[in-house]
């Protein structure tokens, strides 16, 4: 796995409030991310723009028996 392929532990998904944004959040959840905090919404004068933070929990450390 290269650095480019490594999944980030924190992501902030942003975009217009539409079905595509919902699909992006749903995909992140299916990949093991979980929602972090509440979504944010604003209006840019033309459309509603939303943001949702997602986090990926670290894998538990592996313990090798002595």
Automatic annotation (TrEMBL):
Originating species: Micromonospora mirobrigensis
Residue span, DUF1737 domain: 9-55
Pfam families (alphabetical): DUF1737
InterPro entries reported for this sequence: DUF1737
Protein name: DUF1737 domain-containing protein
């Amino acid at each position: 796995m290269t650095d480019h392929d490594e999944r980030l532990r924190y992501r902030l998904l942003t975009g217009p409030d539409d079905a595509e944004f919902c699909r992006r959040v749903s995909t992140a959840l299916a990949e093991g991310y979980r929602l972090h905090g509440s979504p944010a919404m604003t209006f840019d004068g033309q459309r509603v723009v939303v943001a949702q933070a997602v986090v990926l929990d670290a894998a538990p450390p592996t313990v090798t028996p002595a």
